[in-house]
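Title: [Solved] GNAT family N-acetyltransferase 3D structure

Original question kept below for reference.
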Amino acid sequence: MIKQGSICIRTIEECDLKVIYELNSQKKRGNYQEFQFESFRKLQMQYEKDGFCSSEFQMLNVEGGEKSIGLVYLSFYRQGIARIGLVLNPDSCNKGNGKVVLDLIVKYIFDNYPIVRIEADTDVENIIAQKVLEKFGFLKEGTLRKYRYHHGTYHDSYMYSIIK
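Solution (posted by the thread starter after getting help):
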């Protein structure tokens, strides 16, 4: 568990599965995230397999005070490189939570893994996410054309990275 102020990032517990299931809706995912229908049972089976915590992939719960406000996704897909993703409840956005979570998770990765590069991508229209990444020191490296499919069409994304 890592914590700063009222923000706490921790591994997923069985009681979090309902929150994860609810976050996986088109409304909660917002205008810039992919959405796929997923059964609650499939989510339970994935949790039972490894608790969403393996050497390749981790899903972490973000709490603000006493309630879950979002999820962090970590992918360790190549030697020395990690990719992060963040989904916050819409009512938790625009309050500085994204920057706190980003600060905590980047420090955690660099301090605990042999990682030299952390990547993040965001829809080209997601100005808020871009500003958070840039304020934290991530550099925009380029455009990933037709990278994500959501809301019925393919969308371009910007690739960002920060180097240790």
